[in-house]
Amino acid sequence: MTEIVLKDKTYFLPEKWEELTPDQYLFLLDLLNDYIHNKITANIVAINFAMYVLKIKRPRFMSPKQKEVYYENLAWLGDRAAFWWVVEYEKPEVLNNVDPELRRKLKTTLPEDLPQTPEVRVISRYKYWLEPDFVFCSNLMPTLNKSIGYRFNMDDGLLSSSLSAGQFSDAMTISQQYGTAKKEDLLNLLCAILYPVHGNYKFEKAQEHAVSFKKLSTHHKQAIYINFKGILTFITQRTKFAILFNAPKKQGESTIKEEKITIGFNKNIYTLSKNGYGDTEQLMKVNLVTFLDLLLNELIDAVKSMQNMEMELDKILSATGLSLSQLKLITS
């Protein structure tokens, strides 16, 4: 939390997604949805979020000058906690040769708000904009319809989760289908997968349980969907397991498609089964983090085995689907 003292009053503002309460998370999603649809500006997002979290009400009567100062102060407060933005550039390659620390700042802070060094001035000539950064390492809605949801945390660099490999696989599959079809029934099923009856997960039970989420507002269900998608992005981009999901992109492909990630994960369950780790039903029950560790160790062992056989580099890359930089990462 960010602690701010104003006129002898102490205020606390969340400084990351994981510090939000469920109601704050839902409120912020509404604001960001309005921003995405060009209904409000980034500044209004910050102001309204600060007012909501700090429970500040707008005074009834203010002079134009008082109103200006009032909203400037609220915007300043909101900006102190504006963790939800990422700066996107029309030509991302302009950041390629920038110092890593400056690159990090340029992804979280608009160029005009940074010290105007020659590098920043050059980059500011290109088109850029703010986008919501929906990446989470926590379930921000731990309960739903009296059902206890999944646990997902990153503490002191250690990842932990209550999700099983099968539960995660099914949630990935259904969330991907919902992203394409936008059918309400798929949202109900996703909720049933992530919030199982009595905490015991089976896909067949989830299908039966899905009907209980029909009366839940679409707003809440979409928040569950966005939360899970954010966790999926966190795993596939910001953990040591990213290498398991991010195969080299084909020419002209800007990102790895979610469908490829889902199919690849499901395929790995069958691969581990063939390699003697148990039948697929047993592997589906394995804890997600344990399963990912198994996959990573399998990949490292396979690469070392190929290297010990003095296999040519290009053949190793072809067999594993790794890029040269990824290969160096796991063998260094």
Number of strands: 8
Give the overall shape, derived from the CA principal axes. globular
Overall pLDDT score:
88
Helix content: 40-55%
Number of domains: 3
Q: What is the N-to-C succession of helices and strands?
A: EEHHHEHHEEEEEHHHHHHHHHH
Radius of gyration: 23 Å
Which labels suit this protein?
two-stranded antiparallel ribbon, 332 residues, 3 domains, 54% helix, mainly alpha
Fold and architecture overview:
The chain is mainly alpha-helical and 332 residues long. The protein folds into three domains: 2-80, no CATH class; 85-132, no CATH class; 133-332, no CATH class. The chain has 15 helices and eight strands. It has helices at residues 22-36, 42-54, 64-80, 100-108, 118-123, 165-181, 184-194, 203-209, 218-238, 242-245, 258-274, 280-284, 288-308, 313-320, 324-331, and strands at residues 2-6, 9-13, 85-89, 128-132, 143-144, 147-148, 152-155, 158-161. The strands form four sheets. It has a two-stranded antiparallel sheet with strand order 1-2. A hairpin with a 2-residue loop joins strand 5 and strand 6 (147-148). Helix 7 crosses helix 9. The longest helix has 21 residues, at 218-238. The radius of gyration is 23 Å and the shape is globular. The model is unreliable at 248-256 (pLDDT under 50).
